[in-house]
Every structure is written in structure tokens, then in C-alpha cells.
Amino acid sequence: MITWYESAKVERRERSASRDVELRCVSPHGQTSLYPDDLPLVFLTHNDVKLMPGFLAHYRSLGVTRFICVDDVSTDGTREYLLGQPDVDLWASALRYREARRGRLWREVLFQLYGDDRWYVNVDSDEFLIYDECESRTLWSVIHALEDLKISRLPAPMLDMYPIDLGAADVSQLKTRAPWEIADHFDSRGYSLATTRRAITVKGGARHREFDADLELIKYPLIFWDGNCRFGASIHQPLPYQRNFAPVLGALLHFKFFADYEKVFEDAVADGQYFDGSAAYAKMTQALASAGALQLFSQSSVKFGGSKQLLRLGFITPVPYCMSP
After folding, report:
1. Residue 322 pLDDT more than 80?
2. CATH number belonging to domain 2-313
3. Mean per-residue pLDDT over the chain, rounded
4. Burial per residue of 107-126, b for 16 or more beta-carbon CB atoms within 10 angstroms, e otherwise
5. Which of 2, 28, 76, 115 is 20 to 30 A from 304, alpha carbon to alpha carbon?
């Protein structure tokens, strides 16, 4: 009842604060119509061309048929690369990421344009969804299992990925290799999990360990979007809140740390588009100035070994097989 009341209160506030957001499709083919058997993925990106080959390949292998992207004024070739992909609908906005409530308004407009009452993958360009047997099992199998369980969204903690030697993690390798083959380690412990009135909450990981960053790590990368859904105050706590307490069936591998990490942090601070004016990146930049170099490897670090490893370590739970005929 507390969660229901909290959800109703915030939903009323969000409806009264709603605003129009203009998006324009810049793909040569225009906006693509979705069919019932399409699996669309909505993502936001800014200067992430290095990850685009691996990102698209990963989600294509999971069964995604249409990528729907808002590019936040990239200057590194990301927009040009995506314009050359026939399964990508690319959108642009006069607003910047922060003005669009850190992209949440963009996502809501896109869900409205492409249609309610369907499943979407909902991620950023540096987030790669992993679930049990994802190496051989498509997302449609997961969706059917969730529908059997009457679950309408999949919670997933974000695991910061990093290499042992940051200096050797040349981003040019990402043209032909998956990012977890280069930034191939993550913290195997040092996390906390709890529930609030609004959602599951997960804290910890490498950024907390090294920079004391108190960042929320839970997201909902697979979501059934209907007319009752909104993102509200946070992408980590979508409305209605009572849908946010499902089993943790997936994890998001999060890729920020390659050899170009110093430039990435400096650009994020200068751009100021992230949460709290990119305060977390400012803190990391200050720490780097003091230490001279970044070393994320520690006694908590393990090399990524696929979905079964995450299952053994307790980051994810098994996805049941659909029992419907």
C-alpha cells in the first residue's frame, strides 16, 4: 500500500509537470513502423562511436530487430556511423540530455511514437545486457517467461567493467572485438542491495571503491511499456513503482574504462550533462589529478566469464523457461 500510494502521488506530480519535447528523425528512411514480432531497442548516445559495432552486434544476437536512438550532438562520428545502419532509426533534438531530464523525456516521447503495449529494450550505448544463457537464448524467450510470471520489467544491476592495464586497452580494438574482451574485469563483491518504497536499490562497485561514488546501479533494461508507464524522477525508478520488485534476472555490463578514460572524464565534466552537473565525473577527475593514474584492479576483481559466471556469483538468477504451449 505504501508503494501504491507513493506511485500515485508521483504520477500526479509528473502529469502536471509534463512538457512537449520535439524530436526529429534524421535517418534517410525516416521513422520505421514496428510490427508485432519486432523487438525494438531504445537507446541514447553521445560520442560513443567506439562502442557502436559491439553494441549493435550484441543486441542483434539477442533478437533486437530495430534500434531507436537519440544522438545527443555527438562529434566523434557516432551520428554518421548510425546513419549508415539500416536497422537504426536515428533521432535528434534541440534539447540537450540534461534539459530532457537526463534523457527521460526523449525516451517517453519515443515510446509514444513507436507504440504502447509492447516490450522494449531500454538502455544506453555503453550498457550490454547479460542474462542466464544469453549466449544461446534470445530475449523473446526471456519475454515469454516474464509474461508467464506476470512480470512486466526486468531489473538489472550495472557492473562497471575495466581492464587490468588501462593504458593497453586501446579503443581501436573495439572495431573487431567485444568490449568485455578488452575491459574484461569487474568487482565480484562490495555491493549492497535493498528495497525502498519505489524500487530495488543497488550500490557499490569499482566507482564506489575507488572514488566513493554513491551511484544507483539498478536499471530496468527490458520493460513492457503501456499507458501507465513513466520514468518520473529517475530512470532507476520507473512508474508505476509496484512493478519494480521483480527477480533480478539480468545484469548490465557498463563500459566507461578504456585507455581514453581521462579524456572521457574531462569531456563529461566540461559538458555538464550528467547527474548533478557531472559531479561524479568531477570527483573522478580530481582523484586522477592527485593519483596521477587510475588503477581499478583489486582483490575484488574477477575476469568476466559469461552468463553462468554471473549466475554462480549471485548477480543474476535463472530465467525460467516458458511453460505456455
Report:
1. no
2. 3.90.550
3. 92
4. bbbbbeebeeebbbbbbbbb
5. 76
